[in-house]
Hints:
The complex is a heterodimer.
Chain A: H1 2-6, H2 10-25, H3 34-53, E1 60-69, E2 72-79, H4 82-105, H5 112-131, H6 135-153, H7 160-190, H8 198-201, H9 204-209, H10 212-229, H11 238-241, H12 247-257, H13 260-268, H14 270-273, H15 277-298, H16 304-324, H17 331-362, H18 380-394, H19 400-421, H20 430-456, H21 480-490, H22 505-525, H23 530-535, H24 554-574, H25 580-587, H26 589-596, H27 601-647, H28 655-675
Antiparallel strand pairs in A: 1-2
Helix pairs in contact in A: 2-3, 2-5, 3-4, 3-5, 4-5, 4-12, 4-17, 4-22, 5-6, 6-7, 6-12, 7-10, 10-13, 12-17, 13-16, 13-17, 15-16, 15-20, 16-17, 16-19, 16-20, 17-18, 17-19, 17-22, 18-20, 18-22, 19-20, 19-22, 19-24, 20-24, 25-26
Chain B: H1 7-30, H2 34-59, H3 63-93, H4 115-121, H5 149-154
Amino acid sequence: MGFFVDNIWLVPACPLVGGLFAGFVARRVKIDPFAPVAIGVGLAFLLSLAAYAAADPEKTVVVSRWIEAGSFVVPLEFRVDGLSTLMLSMVTFISFLVVVFAGGYMAGDPGYPRFFAEIGLFVFSMTGLVLSNNYVLTYAFWEGVGVCSYLLIGFWYAKPAAAAAAVKAFLVNRLGDIGFALAIFWLWTVVPNHDLSYQNVLADSTLQSLPEAARWGIPLLLFWAATAKSAQLPLYVWLPDAMEGPTPVSALIHAATMVTAGVYLIARSTPLIALSPEVQLLIATIGCLTALLAALIALTQNDLKRVMAYSTVSQLGYMFMALGSGVGSLARLAIVAGMFHLFTHAFFKALLFLASGSVMHSMGDVIDMRRFRGLRRRMPYTCWTFALGALALAGIFPTAGFWSKDEVLVALGAAPHASREIGFGMGWLYGPLYWLAMLTAFLTAFYTFRAFFMTFWGPEKLPGPDDPEAPPAPVAAHDHGHDHEDHAADAHGHGHHEIGLESPAIMTYPMIVLAAGALLVGLLFGPTGLFEGHLEHTLGFESLPAAGHAFTWTTPIVSTIVALAGIALAFVMYAEPSDLPARVAAAVRPLYRASLNKFHVDEIYDGTVMALLRGFTLGSRIFDVKVIGGLVQGVANVPWAAAKDVLAKYQNGLIQFYAAASALSVAVLLWLLLFT
Amino acid sequence: MTDPFSIDLLTNYLLVGAALFALGMLGFVSRRNLIVMFLSAEMMLQGVGLSLVAFGRFHGNWTGQVFTIVILTVAACEASIAMALIVVLYNRKESLDVTLWQEVREEGVGPTDLVDEATQAAPLEHEDGIETYPTLTPAGLEPAHPIQPWTERRR
Lengths: 676, 155
């Protein structure tokens, strides 16, 4: 065990080497690029398990020197404690299954080696992020994750929508990175020795000596960073668009390697965040609003993957609600609840995405739920694994989602009381948040099973070219070149097989494993206390207050009832094709339109922030061309004009004149230098 | 330790160097023959080199010597290039007189007076038979002077 912990750098290194091998070597030596990445990520998973068993709150491993500038020293140092090993095992496990799935899903794509190289890099960045032991290194890997997500969302870069989505994801994440960078700068000025390692920043003595402004400012900036990476309210807009990437990438981004980074950052910095109950309340509020808004949008989306994307945003909101409810004596319970929900969510969300990908693969790249129906006989594995994932997402006993969502709700429910204990006046706000979270749980169950019933239930229907929802067929005659280009962008091996068949074993096995996970991890880790026990080995965790919370039946019973009610409503409305949904939609038409159009958030951003930015860009451009450019041109014009009018007449072609002139000039210059 | 190379000795060397430099400069400015001008430039270079060596010796290190050797190397390269250029120029004009190249001047600037003198002085008479070589062109303009009796007699 000791060997694996001391060489923990092998965990990021394996996927990196696998990815580089897949990208640069595999094709030359005639090896399937899928193999090195799968092996690398699989090895990383095994190593993570070894590290998991040996987690120790104080254990750090210095791999090498990195930045050394005077008193500012940042080593390449990894921390092997409860939180990082937990994330590590989860990330590598999910990534391994997704890579295996992608081996089938991406077969035949022209960018096959590139895909696996980027996946390897992605896993490398994420494992590095959760392992690194100081904020600067975390920031470096944070950026690495951003870059890899950009590359993978824009994997089909010839498709304009994919390219736009990639740019959007990158830019929105950039906005969050500003917050992270500012937080690091601020931390640097206030912590002793300018040492940004976690054991220094999160030490009690450091936290006590922080200036008043930094006590709420730094947590706020860190949360700002997390809102972009983990898709929270002001900055969530990139995540639904990230659907343009290949489905395994979506599964990876949504479950393991991307959006969990923000939650991890907040959980890691909990001792710091807990200094300021106001920021915690803000985190919980933003989380709750995000959860509710995303759930409302997910109600009416027709794109199966988009429903899943909004549900991720919504569930991330739950995680932030949990992390934000850690006021006073609840700190430990809150972080356990948030991380536990992250952990279980990774399983069932990866499963749901892979199942959606399997449907999409089978339907010939059609993902609009109105164009297929009743697939449960054709695709039994996909159907039943999806059902398990959906049950877990809805939070039905005894699936994983039930345990973690209840823990979130329990933490939230206990928060008003804990706030009163520490005299935090605004703590009563947690009460409404609790009930909003319950409402979101109802909506979650409803939209999840709406998707399930619309896809797998009712009479069988396969997508045909004459569906009313089908995109208009490209007109071949005058538009041939464009048509061909589009086809090339979409073609990733789906054209060659008949639609409506169950996916191959390489795709169904990962789904079955994940389904088992979605069913069991909650039961295994939650009530047995394994999860909390493991997180005890986290840095700074002992110093957090632990409250023995009394178990109440209220929350599990209420949440189960609302989830069942949501499923029942979905069954009534969508199990058989009927005009009931249409009638309901017509009855609340403005609300329906708003939800279908995602509450026009993108348009609002376009009209306000983007318009401002465009104006600013235009102003900058004018300034650059007219003022800066004019200045440069003007300076360049001065010698030209002087030479033209004054000096030109002395260029008479006589070498002797030139020589005498230079000699005289030098003489004058020497005279001035020597005798004045 | 007393250095036998005193400041007085250095002054002598520097004076010779300066004299070489000044003579070279005067030659460069006053002569019209390309090759002589080039030789003058070389002389300026030697003046500088001599000063450098003297300074090096005075300071008791090799910097001046080494630098001079570098300068000599560069001067050798420069000489070969200059000779090649001079040959090209000669082939164009059949003369080494540099004032014949006055037309490479700014547009709109009039020719300098001595162009007439130059054209008179420069052209080379082609003679049949034995191959002829260019003769040295006169150095600048001959100053106006009264005719002396001893020259009178020779005429």
